[in-house]
Amino acid sequence: MSAAEQNQKQLWGREGFRDDPYIEAESLDAAGDAPAVILPLAAWLGLDDDVRRTSNRRIGVAVAPGEDIDPLLEKLDTIPLIALQFPAFNDGRSYSKAELLKGRHGFSGELRAVGDVLIDQVVFMLRAGFDTLQVTNRIALERLKGRDLHDTPGYYQPGRGSAQAGSYSWRRMPVA
Amino acid sequence: MYRYDEFDHAFVAARVEQFKDQVQRRLSGELTEEQFRPLRLMNGVYLQLHAYMLRVAVPYGTLSSRQMRKLGHIARTYDRGYGHFTTRQNIQYNWPALGDIPAILDELAEVEMHAMQTSGNCIRNVTADHFAGVAADEVADPRPFGEILRQWSSLHPEFSYLPRKFKISVTGAEHDRAAIQVHDIGLHLKKNEAGELGFAVYVGGGQGRTPMVAKMIRDFLPVEDLLSYTTAIVRVYNLHGRRDNKYKARIKILVHETGTEELTRQIEAEWQALKESDLKLPQGDIAAIDSYFRPPALLARPEGWAALAAAKKADAGFAAWVDQNVTPHKNPDYGVVTISLKPIGGIPGDASAEQMELVADIAEKFSQDEIRVSHEQNLVLPSVALADLHMVYELLLTDGLATANAGLITDIIACPGLDYCALANARSIPVAQRISVRFGAAERQSEIGELKIKISGCINACGHHHVGHIGILGVEKKGEELYQITLGGSADEITTVGEITGRGFSSEEVVDAIEKIVDTYLGLRASKDETFLAAYRRVGAAPFKEALYGEISRAA
Ligand code: HEM
Ligand code: SF4
Asked: In this structure, which topology does domain B303-397 adopt according to CATH?
């Protein structure tokens, strides 16, 4: 990725844009002395658990769509951040993983969507359980600045950020 | 039938507003066609050979008169005066201007319709038995569950970017009119010994270039578990379905490559974790949705029995139509009427604006305000009193809608083919028209009896050729359009994929080849009661191949 594109990356969450303390690196060594690092899954799994837990830096993990989250499950309470990748907007595997991590396994760290994040998927991502989105797409950035999320007034299925709609059991209303 | 409440209205209205904005941005050049593509697909807008095409969802194929009238109005105002009913019980408009599509969606929203989930890799519009709710052989109406699935799958956050499109079909009768075994999920609503409602669940059926019959993975799923079990299936598919090759991305391939037993195990394990979640359907909600579909209180009309007998005696054309196009209703004073959209030599599934309006008027007066679209590309009036049949027939006759060929050889399914479709190898519609003309004589059709011909212009199989008793597939060989013939396919409760007979036929030869097949059948059937399919299953392909290729194989 070119330096110019790198610069345009912005981190966004329900409250708006925020600073990103993390850097992405292939290994801890390659990360220099950055206080917060995201490692690829294989590198993360290769770390000694004690080293990782006693480290004074935050060490998050990036998971590609084809990679399995099972090895992470028993360590969830020690992971500060999981970044699920969207190499293309239409590769939807990370939605199911988000749902499993947040909904089933109670992951309480930061769940981040990275990759091809477009405006039309923002609401899906939030509802599936993502806390933050790393955005580079120009239209998405503009719309998020204007808080124009392409949301609907109600939803037909359970999801985060919503409450029972007082109607059929599967319906939900957004909570402010 | 289901009526939108405020929640539904607000939801659809919001989507239309969003799409208006997107179309504006496309027209102004802010969005390129490439950026616009995923957005338009979310709203049922395809780019075809010559123009944009809009596919409108007809959930489980059920329409009110008011909705049908609106479809006619749209055909007249924004298209060339007709629409095309499809094998997925939807309607397509082939020539709308992009700038008009937001207005069309506004008009549709007025009558509680939309074009969502009619394209894209999401859970598509749910289809159902077109005789649902009225068929004499039905255990329970499957449409309330179609409606629950429609709602739950609408803009589903987890399941809007599946490996490939995902189709669900439901039926509530032993005799399967909804082709559930060639769907990604097929649901057969039935009762267990205790009299409770549940589903037999089939997974992994489909056509396209690798036709497969679905596998039953659960014999009885209580209805309250519908959404949790469906979620389990779709989640396993979303996580593990192939994405490296779009032809292998359907759940049928996952079933095939993983093995039915192992995949069932994964689905059941996922379901155990979901079973008692928010997705469990309260009986009250099921009952509330079901109440929308409660059959209207039908007046007793016993006078129809005698009236019908007398009218049949007096009018041979009417008698033939009743025998072919009217099927038994739950209420013996009523019948279920199939309106054929297959006039001899016509385009299968096309209806003009005037025809749509006429059908709407008839349904309002004579069929409790309800119309169905069948996957065989016909329309259905679900509840017509026997006493009114003659009147209905006379009205249908006024606009070419009383063709007495439901289920016969001229009741052909055909995809749009090379006349409209960018993927086609060959024309489908003209072949259907020529076969229809060749066999059009009433006596000849009736002598041949039930015979389903289905035609696709390429291996994507939109015309269901794999499950035609006789299937015709357009292929391209050295720049020439050829038609490959398959025999013995069927999409009912005993679903089979047809077998290829041999080398393909040119456009000039193909109708003769069909005639040879039909004549061979007539020559070998055990009696007039043995249908083409039954005879084929008894004797196999050999006599048909002999008839088609015999001379060639002897010469070789
Ligand atoms: C003219 C534009 C059309 C195009 C470009 C198109 C394209 C396709 C493609 C690519 C597939 C295969 C999907 C797969 O890999 O599974 C497919 C399947 C299908 N299409 Fe179409 N289609 C068109 C029109 C229609 C129409 C008008 C109908 C209804 C009459 C239809 C009904 C179907 C059905 C039922 C299938 C599913 C077959 C299966 O079970 O695999 N399509 N279509
Ligand atoms: S079967 Fe092929 S030719 Fe026919 S509509 Fe589908 S994609 Fe087009």
From this structure: Sulfite Reductase Hemoprotein; domain 2 (3.90.480)
Which DSSP letter does residue B212 get? B
B243 contact residues in A (CB cutoff 8 A):
65, 91, 93
The CATH-assigned architecture of domain B6-110 is Alpha-Beta Complex (3.90)
For residue B425, which ligand has an atom nearest its CA?
2
Structure tokens at B34: 């490439």
Tell me if residue A88 falls in helix, strand or coil. coil
Q: What is the pLDDT of residues A35-75, one digit of tens each?
A: 999 999 999 999 999 888 888 899 999 999 999 999 999 99
Residue B395 backbone dihedrals phi, psi, to 5 degrees = -65, -45
- Give the distance from CA B432 to its chain's centroid: 18
The Cα of A49 is separated from the nearest Cα of chain B by a number of Å equal to: 28
Minimum Cα–Cα distance from B154: chain A residue:
A156
Q: Do A167 and B148 touch (CB under 8 A)?
A: no
Nearest to A152 among B14, B121, B153 (CB): B14
Task: Check for a shared fold between B135-292 and B414-555.
Answer: yes
Average pLDDT over residues A125-140: 95
Query: Under CATH, which number does the domain B414-555 receive?
Result: 3.30.413.10
Which atom of ligand 1 sits closest to the CA of residue B377?
A: 30
B149 CB near a chain A CB, below 8 Å? no
pTM of the model: 0.93
Here the ipTM equals 0.95
What CATH number corresponds to the domain at position A104?
3.20.20.70
- Convert the pLDDT of each residue in A71-97 to its tens digit: 999 999 999 999 999 999 999 999 999
CB of B531 closer than 6 angstroms to any ligand 1 atom = no
Spell out the CATH class of B135-292: alpha beta
Q: What is the pLDDT of residue B290?
A: 96
- In a mutational test of the B interface, the residue from A91, A137, A170, A172 whose CB has the highest number of chain B CBs within 10 Å is A170
Which residue in B155, B239, B270, B271 has the most chain A C-beta atoms within 10 A of its own C-beta, making it the best mutation to test that interface?
B239
Could you give the dihedral angle defined by the CA atoms of residues B166, B117, B112 and B50, in that order, rounded to the nearest 10 degrees? -120
Top-confidence residue, B18 or A176: B18
Q: How many domains does chain A have?
A: 1
- The structure tokens 């009558």 sit at B111
| Type of residue found at B105 | L
Instruction: Tell whether B157 lies on the interface with A, counting CB pairs under 8 A.
Output: yes
Is residue A117 pLDDT above 80, yes or no? yes
Q: Which letter, b or e, does each residue of B284-306 get, where b requires 16 or more Cβ atoms within 10 Å of its Cβ? A: ebbeebbeebebeeeeebeebee
Per-block average pLDDT, block size 10, for chain B (556 residues)? 94 91 88 84 83 92 97 97 91 92 94 91 94 95 97 96 96 96 97 97 95 97 98 98 94 97 98 96 97 90 96 97 97 97 95 98 97 95 98 98 97 93 93 97 96 96 96 91 96 95 95 98 97 97 95 50
**A156–B11 CB contact, under 8 Å:** yes
DSSP assignment of B176-195 equals: -SS-GGGSSEEEEEEE-TTS
CB contact under 8 A, A93 and B157: no
